[in-house]
Structures are given as structure tokens and as C-alpha cells.
Amino acid sequence: MTNDVVDMITVVIDGFEVSVPKGTLVIRAAEKLGIQIPRFCDHPLLDPVGACRQCLVDIEINGRAFPKPQASCTIPVEPGMIVKTQLTSPVADKAQKGVMELLLVNHPLDCPVCDKGGECPLQNQAMSNGQGETRFEGVKRTFQKPINISSQVLLDRERCVLCARCTRFSLQIASDPFITLNERGALQQVGIYENQPFESYFSGNAVQICPVGALTGASYRFRARPFDLVSTPSACEHCASGCDMRTDVRRGKTLRRLAGDDALVNEEWNCDKGRWAFKYVTAVDRLTTPLVRNEAGELVSASWPEALAAAAKGLKAAKAAVLVGGRATYEDAYGYSKFARVALGTNDIDFRSRVTSDEEREFLAARVVGTSTRYTDIDRADQVLLVGFEPEEESPIVFLRLNKQVRKRALKVTAVATKLSIGVEKLKGEFVKTSPGQEAAAIASQALTAKSVILVGERAGESAGALSAVAVLADSTGAKIAWIPRRAGERGALEAGAIGNLLPGGRPVTDAAARVDISTVWGTDSLPTHIGKSTAEIFAAVNSGEIGALLVGGVDPLDGDDSQAALAALEKAFVVSLEIAPSAVTQRADVVLPVAAITEKSGSFLNWEGRPRSFDEAVQDSHNRSDLRILSMIAQEMGASVNLATVTAAIKEIASLGKWDGARAAMNKVSATAAPSVSGDQFILTSWRRLLDLGTLQKGEENLAGTSRKTVAVISPKRAETLGVVDGDQLKISTGFGSVTLSALVEDIHDDAVWAPRNSRGSQLLVNLGVAHGAVVTVVKA
Amino acid sequence: MSEQLEPLKKNEISVNDVSYNQVETGESVGALGHAKGFWITFTKMFKKPLTVEYPEVKAPTQDRFHGRHQLNRHPDGLEKCIGCELCAWACPADAIYVEGANNTEENQMSPGERYGKVYQINYLRCVFCGLCIEACPTRALTMTQEYELADDSRAKLIFEKEDLLAPLRQGMLMPPHPMYPGMDDSNYYKGDVKEAHPSQDVN
């Protein structure tokens, strides 16, 4: 696309010549010259609409002038065009002032109570391009204010200037057309459908792009003025999309987060979770001091030297392993990776605290680490295949990018999945229905080309053979593979070697040259040569007595498929836990060390592309140390040298490692297991996590939780008929371990399968049932 | 510029290198000169003194004296402050800190949607310029003539909302309480509300 020859058109604006690509709008050509034409409805990422009429300018083409000023946001440049803005044309200036006066006729004078006050395009442009004095003496139109159009978005219709940015965003970008303009004339207003609230995962963007205070967020309502806030550029820690963000802090407390502008990644959008889930840092009781378990078996406060000594002693005394968790920053993960090898002398480290497989680990080493499939590859793809990946729920910005291409050029999206999801429906995708666990066969039958992209989710690893089938398909067609995990830190941890089969930079642990590379930089004599254990194997080894100590980062033991084994292992082993708040791990730990939350430290994540997304500390002077710093201190106490006191030191050291140019680790092909046969009330369970659910990082966000989707159990029409179930009936899903009872929804799903959200209210499958995907469960009408 | 001046190094210059001159004291004023000065003192002894015996005697201030601030109330007792922070914005000394919050049905502190939840004025910083009073859109913030603001700690000189709120007068009811029945916030600003509604228990 970049190679295409672009026609340039030269126009004259206010007496200055400017050359812009064909199709550029006049308002943006003027921007290029630094001429600011006032506007409300115009947004570079939305289709032009010309709704507010604020950007009127005088236009003349080849000597023929338009009889009246024209909206510069709807007219593309043409050869021989001469534009006069408000700066040179008294007619345009008068027209703009007139439009502004009319917009203000019904606009209430409630700037003092309006959240937008101080950063309001209407306030600013009324000052720069308005009359200054009002001539209006009548009674202003009033509406009841404010009304909740969802639990997190409030609408104040009096303030609306009917620019239609919010409705266009919802329709064109998010494909969630839940708001629209109702009525006509002075009574025209933004509204929601009856019985249908504005429950979009992207509703926060409508709040951000509203040029007046008509749409405001419930959680930021009346909390601050722009001059109170200290803004820090940051990156989103919620998923692997890697959104650029801005964090606004008032007196050490995050008050809001806004989507940043990164054309290569999130454009100007983000999802509601990224925007509104930030209270988990302050809503919970944070750990403030180190804790050490005393002889009586109680966790008591201890000094740092005492706790570090206890941690070092315990980790030295027995064979130890490391569990990192998927939320660590790239630098922290690198610290864990180095700590495991240098201080503990083991490759028993795994960042995957979820349902995993060895096939997945080999796939990551062979196909993912060091590669860089980009968002732009989606832009150029002729077809996108989704495998074990539900973009809207698991990586919303990938969904927006897919949706953009679907709308723009009807990109073909194919989803190999067990259930048709709302997201895939919105993408007008082809739904290749499979039984849970039988994805491999469906993948193998896909026809792709070298221009196609395969987006593989972390759940693909839960079905045996699926990832092998993806590798075969990519080899035979030349299609690009992108692995999109759910958590923000997983790709970084993979690159940092926080996994048993890889050293930093994707170097296989079994490769002698790779080990020499690393030990030279680390200054060690040798590195462990065996392939390390995975998370499940580590827990099993603790329970069998092979491993005696665990170093645990931000891990929830209930995220895996055998949570009982995990909890038993944490009870049994000597556990050093690095955490921000009390958790199931800290309860069972022997030494607990408090660490800095994301807002309190700097660092970076690698998003699914492998692109670094760095962020600064938003809250200054928290005195909390990063994982990296603490690991260095424990290592020093143990007599080993990790020596990574700062993020900068870690970045430097990672850079000095350079790229691995040796052979990649090989991948053993795994074949799918035969589908279990089900009959009567037996079903095969399938599930995924929803964007808004009971995730740890969404604690304390009632407004956000209010827009989460309904917890339902989904079965196919055929099975519903045999069970005698209709929508809304209660279904009881049970295993030998436990059961959940959910409201039934009859939808397009494989006849053998029952779907339920993995971690939503009333449906925490891994905790309630002990399984999440591919297992046979019993479903009965409750 | 053709040449740049070399900056002086620290040890290149000393106090002794700087030239100085003796200040000339002039000639003695003489006896007549002394008498002239003391005469002014003598004449003042027969005039009425301008000073007062503070703190026993306290002279009234001018009407527009800029003294301690006050957060006013509507006639029914609801607070006028809406927590808009315009005072804090206007303040050249950064002496005011405000946090707004939502009025709810159970907790109606001021008419309308918003009230000032936290309101602090730091009198160690305040320069009594009155720009905050000019900025206030609801006339919630005014200045009193109280000037005795000395205290013995820094913390005591940060006045909280309770310290600044005007006392409840006749007909007022301590918020939170609902707005006057049938009236909305614009009625309050127009002055239609004269007192708390009889149904609201005023003692």
C-alpha cells in the first residue's frame, strides 16, 4: 500500500499553497498549513458528515466560487481550489460566528458543574471563534439531566451539539449501533433504544470524543478539573493489544485513563476495561511491608533485610522453581528469567498461569518468539483465520482493526470455534463450527494464501493438535501466524525467556551456542541445560517432593485446570510471593514481599505484535519497589548476581544480548485426540473469558461491571429440543467436582457442546467445575 | 557576537579584589538640627493617637476589607458551593483545594447535581486578593471582615469546609436535605427559595 503512487493536489488556502494527496478534506489540508478551522463533528477516523456546520469556509474552484460558505470537513480538495478560511474571508468568519451563536442558543450555562469544563472544544472555540456576547434572551430548551445510557455513561442532552460523533463511532468503528439521533429540529437528541442500554465494550471512546460535556463517564464525574491532573503517557496492562494510554493522576490517585493516539496500534481508541478498570490498585488493601511466617505459622510484618534473608535462605535450602504470571512487565519477566537461571540454577520457570500444554510451549518457541506479525498485516490480509481466539472478548483492539477492514474492504474473516460469538457475527465472519477439542481438523481444511493471517489465541493450546495444525497450515500456504495471548505480559515474558524451554531472545535452552551467548552477558560459568518444567509440572513436582521452594509473581492459582493441586503445592512448598495485595498465594506464602503496581513503576509490555509499549510511573514517590529490584536484592542475599537494580539496566542488558540468529527450537507434531462421544444429558464443555468479568484487575469497578454481558449457558437448538429447554430456563452444568446453574440461551453452537463464560458472576468454571474446555459434563434442566 | 566573555572562575576573584569607597558621613547636624527633629516629636504629644490598644480595642475594618472566606448557604440551609473549582483555578497562590462530588437523593448538600465534598483554603498561602470571590459562579464564596488568622501550627491554618461554612440562620436546615419541593436549582439561583419548607423539620 505504501508503494502505491499517490496523486498530489495543490490548493491555495489563505494565500498559501499546499500539496496534499487526492481525496484529502479541505479541513485537513488547512491543518497541514497550521490553519485551524473550528469544528465539532469532524473526526479524522470517522466518515465525514457535516453535521455541526462550524467549519464553514469560502471555496472557489477554477475561478468559480461557491455561492455560500461550505463545510470544509466534507469537501475534498480539487485542482485549482482556492480556500479562504475565517482568517482571510470576512464572510466565512461571520458564518462561523453565526453557527456558533446558534449552537449556543440552547446550550446550558452549566460549565461550572460540567466535567468537560476546562478542556472543552465548545468552550475553547466559543472563545476563539464566537461572538463573545450573547444576544439570546429567550428561554433555553431543557431536558431532564443527566440520564444513564449505561451504568458507566451519562448523557446530558441539553449540552449536545448534535455532531453525531458518538453515534458514528458506535456504528462505524465499534459496530455497536446502540445509540442514535432521535426526533427532529430543536428536540433532536441522542437516545438509546427502549429496553436496550448502551452496552458496548467501546462506549468510553464515545465519551472521549464528545466535543462537549454531553457524554460523561460515571466514574470520573465531578472528580477533578484538567488543571488538577498530572498526565503520564502509559500503556494498557489489561490485554495484549498494547493500547497507548494517558493516565491522569490527582494527588497520588488515578482518576481516569484516556486512549492515546498511536496510528500503528490502537489508532485513537481503547476498550472500556482499559479505560475504566484502574481502581484495583487502590480498591484493595495493599501490602505495605514484607511479611514473614514465624515459628507459630503466622505471617507477621518484618523488615526488608529480615524478609530478604528469610527468602534467600528458603530458596537456597531446596530445589526451587519460578512462576511469573502473565501480568509482569517485560523487564520484570526478564528479571525472573535471569533469577531462575543465575540464582536458582534451574530452567523450571513458566509465565503461563492458565490452562496450558507442552504443544503450546513448543509452538511458542518454534513459531512465535522473535516474530513480528503486525496490525498492518491485518490491514493487508486477504483473509484472517481466528483459531481459539474471540477478538472482541480477548483482544478488543484487534477486533476494532478487523472490523475496520471488514467495513472498508469486506475482509474475509473465518472463525474456527465451538460457538458463534457476537464479535464474529459483527465481523460478518464465516463460522466454522467444531466440537470442543476437534479444532485441528477444521483448521487443516482451511484454504489460505501467502497474504493471509492466522490469529491464534491462547485457548488454541487447550485443544490438542490445534497448534500443530496451525503450523502445518502456515507452512503449506505461507500465511502469517500471530499468537494473541489474553494477558499483557505474556509476549514479553516469552521473549524474556520466562519459560522452561527458552532463554531470553528466543534462544533454545538445549542449544549450546545459545547458552554461551547468555552466560557471556550474565557472567556465569554455565547455565542449566535441561528443558524446564511447565506450570502444571512444577505444581506436581512440589506435591511429589521433587521441588521444595517456589518463587511466585502475580499468579492466581485458580487460573489453572487443577487448582486443587496448585493450592496443595503452595501449602507444601516454601513460597516467596511478590504481590501488590493479599491473595490466595500470599495466604500460603512463607515470605511475602510487596511490590509496586503498574502505575507506580516504569517499564514496558510487549504487545501481541512483539512491539514494545513502554510507560512511565504515573504515581510518583510510592516507595514501592519493582519486582526487578527485589529479585536483584534476593539474589544478592543468596550470593548470586542478578544486578538489575533499575528498568534502564534491564533494558540495556536485554539490548546487549542482541538477536538470536541460530536455529529455532523444533516443534513436535501433536495429533488431535478422538472426540469423546456424548449422549443423553452429556455435553462437552467449552468456554472463554469475557472482557468484563470477575478478573482481578477489575476489582472495585461497579459501573464497569454493570455493562458486562449476561451470564448464560449456551446450547444448540437441537439439544435444547431434546432437553425441552427454551431461552431463560435454568440449566445445571455439573462435573464430579461441582456444578453451576445458569440461564439457558439457545444459539448457534456445535450440537455436542455447551458454552458458559469462564470467569463471570455465577460461572467461574475452573473453580466451580474444575474444567473449562474439552471435558465431558452433565447438563440438566434445573 | 564575535567573542564570548569567559565566565569568571570561582577562585579567580576574592572579596579583597573588589574596590570600595568609604561612605562619607557628612558634617555634624549641630544643636539646631537636633532641636528641629525633637520638635516634631513634641508637637505630636498633644494630638489624638491614630493607633488603638489592640487586642483590648478592635477597630472596625473598612466595608470591603478582605478577611477570612466564608462558604454561604441558600436560605433553606443548602450549601451554595457546587464544587466547580473555579476559585481554585483563579487562585494565584494555589491556596484553594476543592473536590467535587455527586449529590444523591439521600445526600443532597447543594441544589443541583454537584457539591463541594472537600473544600480547603490554606491561609499560609492566601494573599487575600479576592480573585476567588470574583470567580465564584454561585456567590458561594465571599470574604468576611475577620482578620485574626494567626495560629501556632501550619496544619491549623489550612481551613476545612466546616471552618469556612456560614452558620445556620433563622429558617435554615442543616444539609443534607432534599431541595425545596417543586423547586429546582435555577429557582434557588433566582432567589425563589426563601426558607426551608415547613414540612422539613426546622427547629
Automatic annotation (TrEMBL), chain B:
Domain 4Fe-4S ferredoxin-type: 71-101, 117-146
GO BP: any one term: aerobic respiration
InterPro entries reported in the protein's UniProt record: 4Fe4S_Fe-S-bd, 4Fe4S_Fe_S_CS, NADH_quinone_OxRdtase_chainI
The protein's required cofactors: [4Fe-4S] cluster
GO MF annotation: an example: NADH dehydrogenase activity
Keywords annotated in UniProt: 4Fe-4S, Cell membrane, Iron, Iron-sulfur, Membrane, Metal-binding, NAD, Quinone, Repeat, Translocase
Gene Ontology cellular component list: membrane
HAMAP family: NDH1_NuoI (MF_01351)
Protein family membership: Belongs to the complex I 23 kDa subunit family.
PANTHER family assigned: NADH DEHYDROGENASE [UBIQUINONE] IRON-SULFUR PROTEIN 8, MITOCHONDRIAL, NADH DEHYDROGENASE UBIQUINONE IRON-SULFUR PROTEIN 8, MITOCHONDRIAL
Name of the molecule in the record: Unannotated protein
